[in-house]
Amino acid sequence: MPLRIGTVAVDFPVVLGALAGYSDLPYRLVCRSLGAPYCVTEAMLDRQVLLEGKLRKRLVRLDPADHPVAGQIMGSEPDTLAEAARALDRLGFDVVDLNFACPVRKVVAHKRGGALMNDPARALAAVRAVVEAVPGRPVTLKLRRAFKDGDAAAAGFFRIARGAFEAGAAAIAVHARTVEQKYSGRADWGFLAAVEREFPDRTVLGSGDVMRPADALRLLAETGVDGVLAARGAIGNPWFFEQCRDLAAGRPPRAPGLDEQRDTIYRHYRLACEAYDPRRGLKLLRHFSLQYAKMHPRRTDLRNALVGVRTEDEWRSVIDAFYAL
Question: Does the annotation count 31 as an active-site position?
């Protein structure tokens, strides 16, 4: 079940999508070690990519084990997006991904992310500028079904998707909700099937309501898309990708024991400290531990214990106590 994104070959069609605060380098590396074949960074503002400083270093950090990887950028001006794309190209990202899907109010208010679904002309100007800026580098875009809930025809979507492919985009990733919906209600997988029928010879990835490994394989089977972006469903379960591979091979998905969960949490912590610093590493893992707790048989007790944690010693004491053999 391989997937191809332009010149980039991906050996399995379930990949880690972008999610702010989660799909940073340390978590991408954890997911890589557990079967994720391709990852997308957190969304980066084009201006942040161009501005030298600590934030840029944190956002664009790469590792030899983190390939192939897409650097996701968002903005409102085609020329600035093109400059950011050139920067990602020089830094060694395998794919440049344009975010026209983020539904966060602050992002949309600044005419970025999902706001571009309401402005096809500007969206296509951005695609053309970026494709021209990074010749030979695959350019992809993340879209939503429409901007408004009542837009049943999704005319803006199809105008952007068709124009992007004509401009040279290698793939589109489609979240099957509208921008107005954000993450409420059910994702419209029927729309994903319609997109695949409209573009049968193009690479289309789907997302939305992929909360379990079985959902990813079901989305592939029901819609016919070429790949699946797992985002919220893979947060706190980096084994998601390995489990998808098990299901695709006809095996029951392997469930990690408490000892393996503990070792993975500590590895994630070490990677975060190496990528940033111990203070930020602890802050991230206190937050992430609440997500890892979803897999624990006493998740409510574990979450309650983690809420009061402030120091590394306190955090380690909770992890060691709840993940003891």
Answer: no
